[in-house]
Amino acid sequence: MKYLLLCITITLAAACAKSSGSAANDSLVGAWRMIRYTGGIAGVDLTLKPENRNTLITFSQDSLYRVFNNNTLIFECRYTETTEAQDGETIKVLNIKRPEFLLKNRMTLHNDTLYLVPLEIKDAFNSYYIREE
């Protein structure tokens, strides 16, 4: 009886431990801190030191996109999320709707890391962001 009770307790404890971990959030809504950028004509690959991670982007539920640098709002505009076919696969696209132009980015969101690659600018910088807590 004690052995059965011990087994049940261990099983319940293991089940609770597995379910208490937070699931990865695949929502774009929230704040994202830039940690790295790559690309450009020179082929730059720069991982920013924590003290230099001054660029923050936010996405709201009502489709408002904001960019901050050193906690100062640089600009805001609307965004949409769509999908497109590219090279035989379906990709997620983040559309930043600036008044002057539409910037389309291939968007990969995995384990609270956001990776953006401009689709229509060949020598542009690719950006990496982590979700702010």
Automatic annotation (TrEMBL):
Superkingdom of this protein's organism: Bacteria
Protein's UniProt keywords contain Signal: yes
Signal peptide extent: 1-23
Keywords linked to the UniProt accession: Signal
Name of the protein: Lipocalin-like domain-containing protein
